[in-house]
Specification:
Blueprint (H helix, E strand, L loop, with lengths): L4 H4 L8 E6 L7 H7 L1 H9 L11 E7 L6 E13 L8 E5 L10 E4 L8 E3 L8 E5 L16 E3 H9 L3 H8 L1 E9 L5 E6 L4 H12 L5 H10 L1 H7 E10 L4 H14 L12
Parallel strand pairs: 1-2
Antiparallel strand pairs: 1-6, 2-3, 3-4, 3-5, 5-7, 8-11, 9-10, 9-11
Helix pairs in contact: 2-3, 2-4, 5-6, 7-8
């Protein structure tokens, strides 16, 4: 049975609303931004383009739930208090309204995006929007996918770590291993390892916090380019994982094997030793 949005979140003054269909902007997925930092997500709703997209009193924000096609996560209703003149800047002054506040990050709805536009008049689409699911808790990132299926961009892992997802944390704390970082901009590789008592979770948490994990070449790169470079270009995968009781010497041996096998030293990668 299909449930219409209007039965869950009734709105009477539709002509006072623009719907914000927040999608990939060439650098970031708004879903990752929303989970990572609500303040950063609010900036997405303050952004004024040359078209003055949000030229009504309210913004009804929907976030592209990119793991599922034509599914959107409710990101809140913002009241536009004032509009600055600067374009291509966060020049709208907005306030997060209380209407539907309990559903922010929990309500998933279905709507086929009309073309590539990021804003539409809500009255033209409101009746078409149906409820897909209401989550028990606000969305906090992707569920743990299994060790063999980790092949994730920095931004996805950043979302997981910022939210301290317990399924990921429990899994990654319990293993040592060898991992691979690919720079998508040039194909260069970095092979690293996690051993000792910290497990992979603590090692990757360092990357999330710094962008470089204190590896020499990556530190140099991120110092010059900023953490946005990591968010845009780094992808992580696990080459091997072993139980926490595994001797550290074996992990280091396997790390060196993969450095040789993948030619991650020198011109093809970021490993120094």
């Amino acid at each position: 049975m299909t449930i219409a949005l209007q039965t869950i979140l009734p709105i009477s003054n539709l002509r006072e609303y623009k719907a914000h269909l927040a999608c990939w902007n060439g650098s970031h997925q708004p879903l990752d931004v929303f989970v990572r930092d609500r303040t950063e997500w609010e900036v997405w709703n303050k952004w004024r383009s040359s078209k003055d997209d949000f030229n009504r009193r309210y913004i009804f924000s929907l976030i592209d739930f990119y793991p599922e096609p034509d599914v959107w996560l409710f990101g809140g209703i913002f009241e536009v208090l004032s509009r600055g003149l600067e374009i291509k800047a966060p020049s709208y002054n907005v306030y997060l309204a209380q209407t539907g506040a309990e559903l922010i990050g929990r309500l998933k709805v279905c709507l086929k995006r009309p073309g590539r536009t990021k804003s539409v008049r809500l009255e033209n689409y409101y009746s078409q929007i149906t409820v897909c699911e209401i989550l028990k808790e606000p969305y906090s990132g992707e569920r743990f996918c299994g060790y063999d299926n980790i092949n994730h961009d920095f931004t996805v892992l950043e979302t997981v770590f910022r939210a301290s997802r317990q399924d990921w944390k429990a899994a990654l704390e319990s293993v040592k291993g060898v991992y691979l970082i690919i720079d998508k901009s040039n194909g260069k590789k970095y092979v690293g390892s996690a051993y000792g008592d910290s497990g992979i979770w603590a090692r990757w948490a360092c990357y999330v916090g710094t962008g470089h994990g204190w590896n020499d070449e990556l530190t140099k790169l991120i110092s010059e380019q900023g953490i946005e470079y990591a968010r845009k270009n780094f992808r992580f995968s696990l080459l091997e994982y072993r139980p926490a009781r595994t001797d550290d010497r074996l992990i280091i041996e396997r790390e060196n094997y993969w450095k040789e096998a993948l030619l991650s030293r020198g011109q093809f990668g970021y490993n120094r030793n």
